[in-house]
Amino acid sequence: MGIRFTVLSSGSTGNATVVDDGEVTLMIDAGLSARRIDELLLERGLTGADLTGILVTHEHSDHIKGLGAMARKYNLPIYANEKTWRAMEKALGKIAEENRCFLGTGEARDFGSLRVQSFGISHDAAEPVAYTFSDGREKLSVCTDLGYASDKVKEAIADSDVLVLEANHDIEMLRMGRYPWNIKRRILGDMGHLSNEASGEVLSELLNGRMKRTYLAHLSREHNMLDLAKMSVRDAMEDRGCFFRDSEFRLCDTFPDKPTPWDRVGEL
After folding, report:
1. Per residue in 207-245, pLDDT tens?
2. Cα–Cα distance measured from residue 141 to residue 125, given in angstroms and rounded to the nearest whole number
3. What is the widest separation between alpha-carbon atoms in the chain?
4. Taking the model in full, what pTM does it have?
5. DSSP secondary structure letters along 59-91
């Protein structure tokens, strides 16, 4: 069957992504209410009972809002590193001991034939991570909520067939926006969020003929727009000598209020 995925929701109002290989079905984060997650899963033909477990990137509320409720409702294991567990456990409520699972930063774990690799990223959280998923033939990477992409991050996602990558804000829109300066400084800093231009810079280094699609994720409702993000990312890539046709590589949208279609990673 190969790997398929859907980004159920992406943005500051809540984040959740589902990855499935026909044997296991994992959700990355649960940043909306359990009721809303159930609704979004249903739109993609799933229920919470179909999930194998939930992987957590970090403890911010837009990534764990419904985590405790989903785990209790469907008896799901939660996987996170030790520092993230300590930072989020009060917000989750009671979690069955057997569902408190530890997946260290940099650790790989096999779920059936699907290998999940955790890797560290730069964000203002206890110990934030992102994940790659591989079955030995195909590779998907999901990498958001990072202030910059280090060489280790680029190495982790370099050989992806499909990538979900943050393109949070347009720098000028953010600078001219209504947020107080301390929040703007946080977003723009190395522990904040990737701008459109920064995402384009990362992609210009990674595009090597294998990567087929990149989904631009975690767009700010205040300081970005779907078309602007794609245009700015493409412009940043071309400014660095990286040109491509849509038949070779595509930039795709994610949404805060609806799931993306199922995407089979191995398909063109």
Report:
1. 988 999 999 999 999 999 999 999 999 999 999 999 999
2. 20
3. 52
4. 0.97
5. --HHHHTTHHHHHHHHT--EEE-HHHHHHHHHH
